[in-house]
Amino acid sequence: MAVVVVERLPQHDYVKDCAALTKDYGRESWETRPENAAIRTAVFKALDKLEKESGIREKILSRPVLVKPNLVLVYYYMGTINPISPETTDPRVFDAVVLWLAQRASKITIVESSGRGSPTRSSFRISGLDRIARHRGCEIIALEEQPVDRYILPRAKVQKEILIPRIFSSVVRGDAAYVSVPKLKTNLYTEVTLGFKNAMGVIPYNLRQRNHTGLINQKLVEMLYLFKPDITLIDGVVGGEGECPAPVDPVDSRMIIAGDHTVETDRAAAALMGFDPSSIKLMQTADALGFGEPDSVKVYGDTSPVKFRPADASLISERVRADFPQVKFLLGIDKVDHKLPKDREFVRAMERVCRGGCIATVRFGLGMLKAEGIEIKNPAAVVLGGGIEIDGQRYWYDGDGKAYTRDDILRLPGKMAVIGSCGEILSGDADYYAPGCIPFPNSPHAILHALAGKPCRVLSLHNKQFFKLGAAMLKTRGVRRSLIKQGLPIDVPMQMADDIVPVRELTAEERKRVWVEWPLPRLTRKEQREALAFEDDSVAGSFLGNMRHHFIGKLVNKILALLTFLVTIAPLLLGVISVVLNRPVGWSAGTWFIIYLSVELLHVLELPFALKRARRRHISLLKMAVKTLFIGFPAWTSPGDSSGIETG
Fold it and tell me: For the whole model, what pTM was predicted?
């Protein structure tokens, strides 16, 4: 029997300290503060009751425990209009959980991996979880800085291949317990984000992006084949409603929800938020795959709901129209029945089939602009999809169901952005293009800033955590590069298409198993070079807002090209100036000409290599020859061609 416990908290002002610990954490003043004491009491009562009514004691007693918070991005004075957002696990709740576990577990390790572009090191520091680790004597690990193990899930349809940080293999083998401590909040991609959705922060960055589309619910549930939390404790002290992962608004929910069955704990939490769990696709998928136990769950405590506002995952909602009246959103996602009436509901249907992908990613960008206080004042068009083909003509539809042809779109005033690879047919006409299914996470956000003509406040000095984020990003980059240089895989290659990745052929015996180990080979030299380049690209992409293939390498190459051009042309110019002035500039004109010809001779010797490279890359031989004679080796040793994952 599954057990869920709901514990309510008394009235206090919990919001002001819900994202980060105060400086006096660990002192008597912090311990005795009424709201902190109330949180600890509620957490202890919920876990004590759960321990009494379930079998969790045997799972954690005298065993190592991994405890995972939910730290996507800690919105704490990050440049948004409202400086604090209840987006992440309340550190006061997390501290109470760690303290309760410390009385039972042999070892506690805090583990997490924040969202791409927000290194976990900085999330630990901003939220104060690093101080909790020091004060409570815990180990603390940023999962993106760990080598990974690979598994096959024979029963999965989407998440067939899964990589997890090596430390989580101890949970898979049953050598360690796993406690998930998520936030009670709504979510753009999955409607709610609770216990087993929190596991998305376990898998590597690129694997998160894979099939992060309409397949996301199936993908998330299938992770339960590999590992499940032994305890799920949901922080509902201050709930979050809105367009997460953009900043959310606080909800005075004042509850702690704890359970020994993650699906049933999430089901109870969704009902406590005022939602019908049976209408949530994530829950439907969990039940369809046999992970739910709705008929054998016992819920203790006050189950009266606190109404949460659903995430507004639509680009044609009244809220979006009111906030961004100058932007026309046009959808042509060819995954719906063409025979449906072409009205507002038709457009809504297109949105629903791609909620986990481009739709929600663009909506996240709009939520960020709103949180930053930025408006798009000039007319603009944002297009998603390759059009609905009817009688040989492609059509895109606005929020009222009005149809637009390609020519109609090109006549619209203002700039145009195309989001997602399925809209590639319009990419050549667009001012901005973010390919991918889904695109690099921050690309639509960056494009919306370009349409607004204003920079991102989170990536500026308006963000009081800016230097912490930058320093942590460089440190994380260094650790990840070190692992790669050792030949240790840390992720899958970036995938921009919504394809199901095949796995190796399984034996008859393996097909009967729930999971199968699939050891990763060490990285080859070529794979190391590609992975190292990608690490630099992803860091640059986090600041630029879009991903450019071999960005750092190309930037260095351009600098070298400028230097070699100056070295090549300067002797010629100085020789000419010496002739014009009829006096030497440094050396005589003849000396400068000899130096120039010597440099050019070196470039001539490079020509065979340059032309060979040009033939291999199908580049004009004449163009390559001219470039080599002017700038030398940077013309033909530049990094690989663009992978097509950049905004226009």
Answer: 0.88
